[in-house]
Amino acid sequence: MPKAVRYSEHGGIEVLQTAEVPRPAPGSGQVLVQVRAAGINPGEAKIRQGAFAERWPSTFPSGQGSDLAGIVAELGADVVEIEVGDEVIGFVETRSSQAEYVVVEAADLTPKPSGVSWEVAGGLFVVGTTAYAAVRAVCPREGETVVVSGAAGGVGSLAVQLAKLTGATVIGIASEANHAWLREHDVVPIAYGEGLEDRLRELDQVHAFIDTAGNGYVDLALRLGVYPGRIDTVADFAAAAQYQVKTEGNKDASSAEVLRDVAALVDKGLLDVPIAATYPLSEVQAAYRELEKGHTRGKIVLTV
User: Fold this and answer.
1) Angle ∠(278,193,225) on CA atoms, nearest 5
2) Beta-sheet pairing, 145-149 with 231-233
3) How far is CA 19 from the centre of its chain?
4) Which residues pair with 277 in a beta bridge?
5) Distance between CA atoms of residues 147 and 134, nearest Å
6) CA angle (293, 298, 303) in 5-degree steps
7) pTM of this prediction?
8) Residue 300 and residue 41: Cα distance in Å, rounded?
9) By C-alpha distance, which of 65, 64, 113 is closest to 89?
10) Is the peptide bond before 61 cis (omega within 30 degrees of 0)?
11) By the 8 A CB rule, do 200 and 139 touch?
12) Which of 20, 264, 289, 298 is the most buried (most CB within 10 A)?
């Protein structure tokens, strides 16, 4: 029987397991994908811990994951323009992508370009669409300066690159260990921690701010004089509610069309998706243990 990640109660990493499950069958408008890679994300850890239980309740035993890439194994009724054997990138909203086989809505799939590896493809949806929406929300323009916090993380590492494509000057807040990578991508690195505000004030002007880290960056952006409508946070929703700044992220760009466009940028060499580590599905606990350290550059991906 195929295997899938499951947990039967809210809790720490120890509640995660890989269990044998029946092979799912696609319904009308759906396809069955044999998964090759599936990304993991901080939000999944918080759901599993029960932090979002009121907003996103779990039904136990629960699956996990939304990002995926794989090969179409079976078609449901009324599916057109997709064939068995197609290589695809996609997403699910059923917390089920971390598995050997996953049922996916056909409308939530896009072809995997040949120049995109399985690991990158499998971890692209959440970070790619979140970064896309955040950059679009602050509308950077050529000649402007945009600051991104958490600039070497899964979302931040893509947001800095997408912002650069607009012609803006991009400042990336990150640990010194990631400064060389940022410079390689034509991003100006700045260290977080004591004195950060003074360092940022040395810039002529900050026109827009993307916060992927939380921890007071919305307040910092406002102190720097950034207009609230050009601040976007995907991490500090309390500050967003208090100051009326934007919170556009994955939910605002969750579509196969956006995923297709982001994948095309990767395929053309215009977007680098760093892979911090890969783990086999059976080592899902180790993958989340690495994720929860909070200091990885880029994505952690499960391979199947």
Assistant:
1) 110
2) unpaired
3) 25
4) 300
5) 12
6) 90
7) 0.95
8) 8
9) 113
10) yes
11) no
12) 298
- Rounded to an integer, what distance in angstroms lies between the CA atom of residue 30 and that of residue 261? 22
* Cβ 10 vs Cβ 54: under 8 Å: no
Strand partners, 109: 90
Domains and CATH numbers, the chain: 3-124+273-303 (3.90.180.10), 127-251 (3.40.50.720)
Tokens coding 189: 């690195």
H or E segment at 211? strand 208-211
> If DSSP states are collapsed to H, E and C, what string results for 84-138?
CCCEEEEECCCCCCCECEEEEEHHHEEECCCCCCHHHHHCCHHHHHHHHHHHHHH
Nearest CA to 164 among 147, 177, 181? Answer: 147
Q: What is the pLDDT along the chain (304 residues), one digit of tens a residue?
A: 999 999 999 999 999 999 999 999 999 999 999 999 999 998 899 899 998 888 788 889 999 999 999 999 999 999 999 999 999 999 999 999 999 999 999 999 999 999 999 999 999 999 999 999 999 999 999 999 999 999 999 999 999 999 999 999 999 999 999 999 999 999 999 999 999 999 999 988 999 999 999 989 999 999 999 999 999 999 999 999 999 999 999 999 999 999 999 999 999 999 999 999 999 999 999 999 999 887 778 899 999 9
Q: Which long-range contacts (CB under 8 A, 24 or more apart) does 79-84 make?
A: 79/26, 79/29, 79/30, 79/31, 79/106, 82/31, 82/106, 82/109
3-state secondary structure 247-299: CCCHHHCCCHHHHHHHHHHHHCCCCCCCEEEEEEHHHHHHHHHHHCCCCCCCE
Q: Report which residue type is found at 182.
A: L
